[in-house]
Design a protein that fits this description.
This is DDE Tnp4 domain-containing protein. InterPro entries: HARBI1_dom. The chain is mainly beta and about 120 residues long. The protein has one domain. Helices cover about 10% and strands about 30% of the residues. It starts with 16 loop residues before the first strand and ends in a 5-residue tail after the last strand.
């Protein structure tokens, strides 16, 4: 059996149900995603690797399911935004073949509000 990367106490998981084989948290959230910029040495062909923070980097996007299992890790050039990484990811491209209707992933403010992806409200 697969072991979760992160374990939670049962009281922290109250209000969780299942839909279409997916573990759903509040408002039918089936998983979460985030991107991280990992600084690298400047490559010989460095076009596209400089991130918004002005250093060469890789943008690593991680996606986990509602049961805290790692679904996807994708690595893109540092110049790619979180939104672009999501749109080109295997899960982002085939989202409606992956999750049940009426469910979605959650992301941070680095992502855009898109069908199947909920992000924080911008004030």
């Amino acid at each position: 059996a697969r072991r979760p990367l992160v374990s939670y106490r049962s009281r922290e998981l109250s209000g969780i149900g299942r839909q279409g084989g997916w573990l759903c948290v509040t408002a039918c959230v089936v998983g979460a995603l985030d991107g991280s910029l990992i600084e690298i040495e400047r490559p010989e062909k460095f076009d596209g690797f400089y991130c918004r923070k002005c250093y060469p980097a890789l943008n690593v996007q991680e996606i986990v399911s509602g049961d805290i299992l790692l679904l996807s890790v994708e690595v893109r050039p540092g110049s790619w935004s979180d939104r672009k990484c999501w749109l080109y990811s295997a899960i982002g491209r085939t989202l409606y073949n992956v999750i049940p209707p009426g469910t979605h992933f959650i992301g941070d403010a680095g992502y855009a509000l898109l069908p199947g992806l909920m992000v924080p409200y911008r004030e």
